[in-house]
Amino acid sequence: MLRRSRSVGAEVAAHLERLITSGELAAGDRLPAERELAASLQVSRASLREAMFELESKKLIERHQGRGSVVADISEDVAQLYENLSELDVEIANATELRDLVEPRIAQLAALRAADSNLLSLEDVLARSQEDLGPAESLALDVEFHTLLAHAAQNPLLVTLCTMTTNWTRRTRELSHETEQGRRISVEGHRAIYGAVVARRPAPAGAAMERHLREIRAISTEHGHRRAPS
Q1: Dihedral sign computed on CA atoms, order 95, 173, 146, 191
Q2: pLDDT bucket at 184, cuts 50 / 70 / 90
Q3: Radius of gyration of the chain measured on its C-alpha atoms
Q4: CB 165 within 8 A of CB 102
Q5: What tens digit of pLDDT does each residue of 82-124 get?
C-alpha cells in the first residue's frame, strides 16, 4: 500500500473499498478479525477502526457486535456507477492538470506578444460565441478561441501543444458545453481572458485563464456525475 500525506486509516479504507467494488471481496464475505486484518495490512488497530467506520458509513460493510464485519450487498448498477464516477473524476483531474500547466502561460504570453491581427481574430470568435448556441457549435468556438490564443503567444510549439491538448481533453470539454450554464460560463471566461490580453496585462490574463479552467472543471464534474448511469 502506498503511503501518502493522507492518514493511514484513509489509505486502508481506500484499499478495502477497491477490493469490494472490484468484486475481490464479494457480498456476504466475512472480513478477518480486527487483530488479524490489522496485522495482515501492517497497520495499527486504531487505523483499521478508522477505516472500518468509513466503510460502514458508506454502507460497504455491515458490522455486527460479536460477529465481525461482513461485506454489504452492492448491486451491479451501484458498483458500475462507482466505477464510472471514478474514471470520470480521474479523466477530468488529468485534463485539468494538463490545461493548468499550459494555458495560463499561453494567456500571459499572448498578452505580451499578440499582434493586432491576433486580437481581431479573438474579437471575431468572441462575437460569434453566445450561450444560446448548440453544444457542438459552442465547443467548436471554444476550441477556436484557445487555438487562436496560442497563435497570439507567437510560439509555434505552443500551438502544436494546444492542438494536442484539445484532442486529449475533448471529452471533458464536451461535458462543459452540454448545458446553457456551461456555455455561458465558457463565454464569460473567454471575455475576461481577452480583456486582459487586449489590455496587455500578462498576470491578469494568466489569472483569468486559471479562474476559467476552475469554473469549467466544476461544470464538467457536476454534469458528468448527473449523466452517469443509475
Answers
A1: negative
A2: very high
A3: 24
A4: yes
A5: 455 455 555 667 777 888 899 999 999 999 999 888 899 899 8
